[in-house]
Amino acid sequence: MNPEDLTKVKAVLWEKKENNFVQCNICHNRCMIAPGSVSRCLSRKNVDGKMELNTFGLVSSLADDPIEKKPLYHFHPRTRVFSVGGWGCNFRCLHCQNWNISQIPKEIEEKLLKERAGTEEYCVTPQKLVELTEKHNCQGIAWTYNEPAIWLEYTIESARLAKAKGLYTVYVTNGYITPEALDLIAPFLDAFRVDLKSYDDEFYQEICGVKNAQGVFETTIHAKKLGMHIEAVTNIIPTKNDSDETLRNLAKWIVKNLGEDTPWHVTRFFPYCKLQHLPPTPLETIEKAVKIGREEGLNFVYRGNVGEESKTFCPSCEKLAISRNDRVLIDVNSDGSCKECNRNLNIVL
């Protein structure tokens, strides 16, 4: 595929409605798009009653990262992953750290995309993405920085080529993709690193700008059924999702629906974007979340954004399995189980 062919890729999962409207079914927003308008995430546009792609192959960010940075602690530890981001998002998170690529006003983004569509620097075909991954000696690709689901067609083709080359594939996602959309990429997607931002609809409405949390939980269960490796992250924001009840409900939900060995990363919030008036998350709150997670039966709860070494211990015999600091040291069997007692640690090597 050449850069000039990027605009010719057909959109998937859309329906034509009355009066030349089209409905997108990529995420749970299920945008109804008027003729000449774009979707909320800006990745799709209605051209004469047909859905066309606005951002296929247009990248905003590329980086060579340790997989632990995603964060993924139980998925191919100590490997490098090639991270790629696009433009736009289906959420409007008030604390988004990547707002400059995810929440650009429509009129500015449309102008920006038009300017960059013809430049090789910003047009990365799926073939080129795989080539760059191999060039940087990375073992996999992660779609991250903004929501990968809105880039569905691009991620499907890229992931298909990546798997053919023996590379692993990762979505770093808010989880709002629909089950039917996830089904399309499922044959080529290995890991689903999902944000479980809160247990409450009110949080998703106020902080993320979507109608409820149901879609996130529904799709995450579906990802589990599809056999993807799942790790969950909750960024704990003071006064917003830091109550004992919220944290306990999240931990209970993970245990019940994803399993007790699912890693849960509880991370510190720092003032950013439209929530600069709030303080950073106290370390005591992070410790509280870890304690709650363990009380509810989670075996692997990790502190994030605290600047300390992170370790994985076997829940059965307490043997150290992985330590993460400047270097990642791994001491497990070849199947990821504990070397001492052979317990499954839910580690993918």
Structure in words:
The chain is of the alpha/beta class. It has three domains: 10-53, no CATH class; 61-308, TIM Barrel (Alpha-Beta Barrel); 309-349, no CATH class. The protein has helices at residues 99-102, 106-116, 126-135, 152-164, 179-185, 201-208, 214-225, 244-257, 283-295; strands at residues 14-16, 22-24, 32-33, 44-47, 50-53, 61-66, 80-85, 140-143, 168-173, 191-195, 229-236, 264-268, 301-304, 310-313, 320-324, 328-330. The strands form four sheets. The protein has an eight-stranded mixed sheet with strand order 6-7-8-9-10-11-12-13. A three-stranded antiparallel sheet has the order 1-2-3, with no helix packed on it. It has a three-stranded antiparallel sheet with strand order 14-15-16, with no helix packed on it. β1 (14-16) and β2 (22-24) form a beta hairpin. α3 packs across α4. The longest helix has 14 residues, at 244-257. The chain is globular and about 65 Å long.
Largest β-sheet summary: 8 strands, mixed
CATH fold field value of the largest domain: TIM Barrel
Which structural category do the helix and sheet elements fall into?
A: alpha/beta
The CATH architecture assignment of the largest domain turns out to be Alpha-Beta Barrel
Which spans have pLDDT < 50 for at least 5 consecutive residues? none
Taking strands numbered 1, 2, ... along the chain, how are they ordered across the largest sheet?
6-7-8-9-10-11-12-13
Average the pLDDT over all residues and give the rounded result.
94
**Please, what is the CATH homologous superfamily of the largest domain?**
Aldolase class I
Spatial extent as radius of gyration: 20 Å
Number of helices: 9
How many DSSP-defined strands?
A: 16
Helical fraction equals: 25-40%
CATH class of the largest domain: Alpha Beta
First and last CA, distance:
32 Å
Shape: globular
How many discrete domains?
Answer: 3
